Amino acid sequence: MKNIFLAILITISISCKQQNNDESNNNTEMTKEKNKEMINTDETLLSGLNLAKVTFSGEKLEMKKYKYNDTYIENIKMADLLSKEYREGFFKYIANSVVDSDGEFKATFFSKLLLERIIQLKDTNAFYLLTESSKNPSISYNGIEMISEYVFDDLLENATFYVKESSKYNDNTIIEYILNDMAPRYIKTEAEIKDPTRMCACDDLQKGAILLSKDTLDVKSNLKKFKEKFKSEKIIEIDCSPSLENGWKSTTNEYYDIKLFIDKNLEIKLDNKEKIFYEVKIVPILKDYIIK
């Protein structure tokens, strides 16, 4: 009798677990479908954009250059791109780029339009499409990789939006790609900061910190707009003895804890699910930069 009762419990448990998995998958698909339902069926990639604000390296976007199925890319409907069948065909088209041909940079053009929709309109569907296109190396090569610095700037400016949208689909593709590509240009790894040849006093550094040099904040043009926000943040000083790196002079390097800064800004803007996603799926991307 006990064996029968145990078997029933196990069966119920397995059934419930399967049901939860199915519900989770269904919820993701329902969210995607909901986005499709909410979108204006006549809305195109160009709809709602102020083209006067759209510049990349000082150059305006060139319209009426690339066509897919007799429709210029900028005039393709968002609703069509959210259709899996249409999107797969379109992605094959922009992935098929021939070097030095007229169509070499159609993936770049598409990605720029999506980014502008994210920047200007906070378009969640554009974020989803940029995420999906970035998973294809044949697209990302001429897509997000070509505009990574612009995406990084917007990520810094609108981190909450990026975390929320990534959490929605449990997909950190964009954030992972951008942080892996851009972080080395702005922050030092823990190993670099604690490099013994630098002869710096690092024993008392706060664990869990990610250090952004104050000099970097002053010098990098795209970071200067954040200087005012960091004024109220504590400056972390690291004293270094004379070495080859500092010209054989004793120096004091100044840093901000950028992780603490980001955490404080996200804390009040994320719900519990999003906070867990941030800690589990995003923070580990920067593990080499975290002071341990």
Describe the protein in words:
The chain has 292 residues and is mainly alpha-helical. It has two domains: 51-182, no CATH class; 187-289, no CATH class. The chain is built from 14 helices and seven strands. It has helices at 2-38, 78-81, 84-95, 106-121, 124-134, 137-140, 148-157, 159-168, 173-186, 190-193, 214-219, 227-230, 258-267, 272-282; strands spanning 55-56, 59-60, 67-68, 71-72, 211-213, 236-240, 251-257. A hairpin with a 2-residue loop joins strand 3 (67-68) and strand 4 (71-72). The longest helix is centred in the N-terminal third of the chain and has 37 residues, at 2-38. Residues 1-27 have low confidence and may be disordered.
List strands and helices in order, with pairings:
Blueprint: H1 2-38, E1 55-56, E2 59-60, E3 67-68, E4 71-72, H2 78-81, H3 84-95, H4 106-121, H5 124-134, H6 137-140, H7 148-157, H8 159-168, H9 173-186, H10 190-193, E5 211-213, H11 214-219, H12 227-230, E6 236-240, E7 251-257, H13 258-267, H14 272-282
Antiparallel strand pairs: 1-2, 3-4, 5-7, 6-7
Helix pairs in contact: 4-5, 7-8, 7-9, 8-14
Give the strand tally: 7
Structural class designation: mainly alpha
What's the helical proportion of residues? 40-55%
Continuous helix count: 14
Overall body shape: elongated
Q: Can you write the helix and strand succession as a string?
A: HEEEEHHHHHHHHHEHHEEHH
Q: Biggest β-sheet, characterized?
A: 3 strands, antiparallel
Average pLDDT taken over every residue: 86
Cα separation of the termini: 55 Å
Number of domains: 2
Approximate strand percentage: 5-15%
- Order of strands side by side in the largest beta sheet? 5-7-6
Oligomerization state = single chain
Runs with pLDDT <50, length 5+?
A: 1-27
Question: Taking Cα atoms only, what radius of gyration do you get, to the nearest Å?
Answer: 24 Å
